Amino acid sequence: MGNLLNGASYKEPSTVEECDSTWETDSGGEEEDDDEDGLQAGAEESEGEEQRSEGSQNDSSTSDQNFKPKRSFYAARDLYKYRHQYPNFKDLRCQNDLCNLRFYMNKIPFKPDGVYIEDILNKWKYDYDKLEHNHTYIQWLFPLREQGLNFYAKELTSYEIEEFKKTKEATKRFVMAYKMMLDFLGLKLVDKNGNVSRSANWQERFQHLNESQHNYLRITRILKSLGELGYEHFKAPLVKIFLQESIVENTIPNMKQSALEYFVYTIKERRERRRLLRYAYHYYQPPDHFIWGPPTKQKAQRSKSVKKTIASNRSLKKHVQKSQDAKIEQEQVKARIGSFEEKLTDHTEVETNPETAGSIELVENCKHEMATVTDDDKMVNTELKFLSTHRNDTTNISLYGNKLMEKNTEHLGDENNTNRILVVDAIDEDGKDCLCSLSPGTTAESNTTEENLII
Prior knowledge:
By secondary structure, this protein is mainly alpha-helical. It is 52% helix and 5% strand.
């Protein structure tokens, strides 16, 4: 495969996180606006959340018994090297060898079988038994820059890759070989953009593919080779349909792990990987076992948002309770005013009756007591003067009571003025005379802010 360079510029990754840069440039939703198949946020994402929630409840008995899976470091490191063009390795072979290109030019057969590319494309097509049980042709049909199980096959070199891309005869046969293998897998190529769909015999082939799992290694090689030889745009549609069949349709359930652990990470563009992983996450069950993304930071933000919502709900509850308390106090004020008004009605001769003359003194004492009220509440003194002047006029007393009630109601409806509510206390002396004592009442101030009330 080549020798390691003696440079110190490359550091071998030692963790899965160091191998995976998928979410490094994630903007937290850039993919959703461009996807046409259900990757965007909004209503469909909410539906997906409901599906995952229901599935989590349905599978709770089984998921609790299983350990949460872990990502394979071997797979992550292997795909990291592939995406970064095998750092710290160099070509050792003679650049004029080009055996992979010459094989696709039909000039040499593949070893050890000795079969030419034209024979494979014409005679092996639809021969599923041969394609299944022969394990030496796949390294020649889909060459890589790394050694495979067939030690007769040669690794690609950088120079050979460039020459291969410029040779139309070779690229034409390469696409034909890809179509042949798609048919073997139960798929067909739809257009030049690499879109694929089920073939006519997909049910039979999917069942075989679900049972014959060594073909997942072949698919990984095919995806890698597509990227090496100029067909990177063919990879995402192929990975997407495998995710759909294994996770959504459940026609190839045994492929689920390989599709997420290997197939997705053969794609070099981070954006495409994120889109595919979000698609898989949308349907994956159980949801708490999805270990490939979205990143932890988004989950942490989600958790923080939930906690903030709970705190806001508690604050709102306290605010509602305080409002209820204020309403109760308002009713009490109304009852006191009513009692005061009723008893004053019986004293229409306050000025001439000596037995009730003491009521005037009580009014004066009340005025003196209210002199301590703040400047904003000077209206109380004015209203007390009104009461002294018209103490024998039951009609005006009633109007005053209503006016005072309106003032209290106005204060109660204003959060900023809850400390200016006036409480009326009825005074009953010896069961005969009654007047009011006005004193400033307060309600508990609410610390609830507009921000806390947002849910």
